[in-house]
């Protein structure tokens, strides 16, 4: 089994089976797309958003963690700027921040960025307005 680096930079040799499954899904998400914590749990048919969030907090550094997000599109607290760099690099759809938004940080455009776990990133089925079928 490969080694995984945790958020505390500790290396572990073995992951719980559920954590492996969550991380496998995170690695499937195409660049420029995201899944919510709840989407990942639903895709797995096991656990819930909090369990997925816990796995990502403990073991997510080993995968593209910025692609597993909150359902409201807010950037991960404490990691906003790092995530934003990834989103811009991958052309992940963002919504401009309102003037009243704390820190004036954009949010993810969940209608356009959300991945359904089946369709590809560039080849996703889209409506005329550009939103993906979820």
In short:
The chain has helices spanning 17-28, 37-44, 49-59, 80-90, 110-113; strands at residues 4-5, 11-12, 35-36, 68-69, 94-95, 107-108. The chain is of the alpha+beta class. The model is unreliable at 121-134 (pLDDT under 50).
Give structural notes.
The chain has helices at 17-28, 37-44, 49-59, 80-90, 110-113, and strands at 4-5, 11-12, 35-36, 68-69, 94-95, 107-108. With 134 residues, the chain is α+β, with helices and mostly antiparallel strands. The model is unreliable at 121-134 (pLDDT under 50). The strands form three sheets. It has a two-stranded antiparallel ribbon with strand order 1-2. Strands 3-4 form a two-stranded parallel sheet. It is globular and about 45 Å long. A hairpin with a 5-residue loop joins strand 1 and strand 2 (11-12). It is built from five helices and six strands, in the order E-E-H-E-H-H-E-H-E-E-H.
């Amino acid at each position: 089994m490969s080694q995984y680096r945790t958020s505390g930079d500790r290396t572990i040799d073995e992951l719980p089976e559920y954590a492996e499954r969550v991380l496998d899904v995170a690695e499937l998400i195409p660049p420029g797309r995201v899944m919510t914590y709840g989407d990942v749990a639903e895709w797995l048919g096991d656990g819930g958003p909090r369990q997925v969030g816990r796995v990502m907090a403990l073991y997510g550094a080993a995968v593209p963690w910025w692609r597993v997000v909150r359902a409201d599109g807010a950037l991960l607290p404490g990691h906003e700027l790092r995530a934003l760099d990834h989103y811009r690099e991958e052309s992940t759809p963002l919504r401009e921040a309102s003037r009243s938004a704390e820190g004036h940080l954009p949010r993810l455009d969940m209608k356009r960025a959300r991945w359904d776990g089946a369709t590809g990133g560039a080849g996703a089925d889209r409506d005329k307005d550009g939103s993906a079928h979820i």
